[in-house]
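Task card 7
Instruction: Convert sequence to structure tokens.
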Amino acid sequence: MSTALGIVVVVIWAVLLFGRSRWWRAREQDDGVLGEPGTWPAVIAVVPARDEAAIIGRAVASLAAQDYPGDFSVIVVDDDSSDETAAVARAAGGLRLTIVSAAPLAAGWTGKLSAVAQGIDLAGDVPTYLWLTDADIEHAPDTLRRLVARAVAERAVLVSHMARLRTDSLAERALVPAFVWFFMMLFPFAAVNRPGRTAAAAGGVMLVDRAALAQAGGIAAIRTALIDDCALAKLMKTQGKIVLLLTRRSLSLRPYRRVGDIGAMIARSAYAQLNYAPALLVGTIIGLALSFLAPPLLAVFTGGWPQAAGFVAWGAMSAAFQPVLRFYRRSPAWGAALPVIAAVYGWYTLVSAAQHLRGRGGQWKGRAQAARR
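Output:
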């Protein structure tokens, strides 16, 4: 039994390391020199916000400070906030900012997408590009310039940057780099960036071709999506090229001080990622157990060839984690902890399914946004 298990884990990690576009190398990053377009097209940023008074000031101020040479303005859609979100945003936004109050949430829409759609409607036909960003993301002054330059140069209908998440607390240092790493495993960035079916985006930073979005049916085409960024990426890839990159120019301001805070983030969408399918849930848990838990168990509790196979697989996963750990400037020792980290993600995936069954799926800011199935 242990010999067969050893063969399985080695094969799994051989496939993960040498297949799937070598996703773990994390080479798709927003760096290098970009040529500037002959003319800078008009852009309007749309920011949905709900109870974000604590952090929206820095986010909006960073938008107002963009050094973009073309026409640029910002629309914040205040989604029924119970705090001073609108007032804080107004104080930070200056002349570039317009704030609107969201209409009541219509049936069949998730709250964020409803707010985004209203912002896009207000933008009208003015912009060539829509910059969809979040109220908890702070951007470097050249962020928009680089997004547009890449979109024009690559003729992309969607350019998305995965914002750098915080790694200040112990919980963040332990679990956040793995969040990005698992996302890259599911959606290899190199595969996203070339023709094919693989599509993904990171919701904090998405530059969208407005005309292409309208041609695809607009935000209404994905109005029920809980994982809205990947749903938008899938929609936009029907219209042309999409690009997804890691970046250090955009920083998430949202703190996750405890493991439970990150667990809530995972649970909000994990079961939706599995299309609410019990069979996929079971398969995912088995896959996590074989890929991440079996190697250290073989390494510690067996001998001979199975033990060697366990150490090889454990070492392979640790090595594959290193590029993301370097990107986040975290200790390489976290690579050895991947089995424990994967167990935490597996647990909160089960929590996600349980919440869905109780009618509390997609919980965010007081709304359970995942429809029961």
